[in-house]
Design goal:
about 350 residues; alpha/beta; Enolase-like, domain 1; TIM Barrel; seven-stranded parallel sheet; three-stranded antiparallel sheet; about 35% helix; about 25% strand; globular
Length: about 350
């Protein structure tokens, strides 16, 4: 195959700042890859979008590297023959462009009940960090919109304030009606995390993502063993070679869940490998966007729909931006559908 390409730089603007324990996002820089196959004349659109302070390929000269890697791809003609271990978002971008190049007239990258309009994907409602009162109000709005699983970003506020906020929610909505997930983004200190998880248990929390920073395998393994709240690994997977260390990580830490962000961990093919290892180790998973535009979000959502996964996915981020791209994804009552 012979390909040509061009790169379109695009800046997504958040409706309001999105805060985590690491960063506050007001805008989001992404790169659209326009790939054309010369023999057939078909073209595809992909997205490469390293995330500030989190992606291993969040580097100053990213645009030049992206251009160079695409030149290499067009010369080689095969993604499998390229070494993109240090550039997960570039692999994701090329993968999504290739998928789009082969999509049908209705934009289906995969033919599944979801893309055929026969089923939906359950998604969680995301509550960003803010003051406790605003987070409480955000949660109520998500619940009113029909979300039955609410995910809170925690770890940056005063812990007692976060507990009081969760207590208010739980007093109004029992666990059988509303499921609460937490995401600490590594914000808990290793010597305090166990006690904090013990305190959070009383709010009937479904799970908590990455309570402590990545690479603290001993601390994470201990928490997974002792905590009464199920633990999910998120940032722990970023920059890790799934083929060399994936199985070792799962057997040593023994998490209940994996959070898969294809754009950050090396693309959809690498996420497939994590799922294969997870199934063999009785580990469950769900996918989460990494603040991509609707181009990347569409690819991840369609990819997820190949799997029989009943867990709520973290894919409700398309409405965060004032200037997002067009999309055939639609969310209503906490369920995502593909609308042709």
């Amino acid at each position: 195959m012979v390909y040509t390409f061009n790169i379109e730089k695009y800046e997504l603007e958040f409706i309001k700042p999105a805060k985590t324990s690491r960063n506050t996002f007001k805008s989001r820089k992404v790169y659209f890859i326009h790939l054309k196959e010369l023999d057939s004349g078909k073209s595809g659109l992909g997205e490469a979008a390293p995330l500030s302070l989190l992606s291993i390929d969040d580097v100053a000269d990213y645009e030049q590297i992206l251009d160079s890697k695409l030149e290499d791809f067009c010369s080689i003609g095969s993604l499998q023959d390229m070494d993109l271990g240090d550039y997960p978002s570039i692999r994701f971008g090329i993968e999504t462009a290739l998928l789009d190049l082969e999509a049908d007239k209705d934009g289906r990258l995969y033919s599944t009940p979801f893309t055929l309009g026969e089923s939906t994907i359950p998604v969680n409602g995301l509550v960003w960090m803010d003051n406790a009162e605003t987070m409480y109000d955000q949660a109520l709005k998500k619940i009113a919109l029909g979300f039955s699983v609410i995910k809170f970003k925690v770890g940056a506020l005063d812990f007692d304030d976060e507990c009081r906020m969760l207590e208010r929610i739980r007093k109004e909505f029992i666990a059988s009606k509303i499921t609460l997930r937490l995401d600490a983004n590594g914000g808990f200190k290793p010597d305090e995390a166990a006690e904090q998880l013990k305190e959070l248990k009383r709010f009937e929390i479904h799970s908590i993502e990455q309570p402590v920073k990545p690479k603290l395998w001993d601390d994470m393994a201990r928490l997974c063993k002792e905590s009464q709240i199920d633990i999910a690994l998120d940032e722990e997977l970023i920059g890790l070679d799934v083929y060399q260390e994936g199985l070792k990580l799962l057997k040593y830490i023994k998490p209940k869940y994996l959070i898969l962000k294809p754009n950050l961990i090396g693309g959809l093919s690498i996420a497939d490998r994590w799922i294969s290892l997870a199934h063999k180790n009785e580990t469950e998973w769900w996918a989460t966007s990494a603040l991509e535009s609707n181009v990347g979000l569409n690819a991840i959502s369609q990819w997820v729909s190949q799997y029989s996964n009943t867990l709520h996915q973290g894919l409700g981020t398309g409405a965060l931006f004032t200037n997002n791209t067009n999309s055939k994804l639609h969310i209503q009552n906490g369920k995502m559908s593909f609308v042709v």
